[in-house]
Amino acid sequence: MDMKTMALQIIDLQKVAFDNGYETIVTLQDQAEKVLNAFMDQTGWFPAEGKGALLEWTTMYKKGRDDFKKAIDDGFDQLQRYISSSSLGVVQ
Question: Helix, strand, coil % (nearest 5) of the chain?
């Protein structure tokens, strides 16, 4: 089997595994946000200042989460381009 093809398949596997794990985390965080919002809406004693802080916090972690995903995706793309342009040999 061609080493380049094998390396690209391994990278694809790692990317799929990362994407699946990332989507799981996104789902859990989004569900936690829904629960938090429901709690804040149903609780009369929760201060408006606290709600604002929590909304700002969720916006920041979503941006951080998206930036992290973009950085990882860019890394996978760079690695795939590097391996595709390399001269890895054929294993016999």
Answer: 85, 0, 15
The full length of the chain comes to 92
Cα separation, 7 vs 79, in Å, equals 10
Structure-block tokens of residue 85: 């342009």
- Residue ranges of domains in the chain: 48-84
Please state whether the predicted TM-score (pTM) of the whole model is above 0.85.
no
Q: What is the mean pLDDT of each run of 10 residues along the chain (92 residues)?
A: 89 98 98 93 88 93 97 97 80 52
Question: Which amino acid belongs to residue 22?
Answer: Y
- Give the per-residue pLDDT at 13: 98
In terms of Cα–Cα distance, which of 37, 62, 33 is closest to 51?
37
Pseudo-torsion of CA 38, 39, 40, 46, nearest 10°?
A: 160
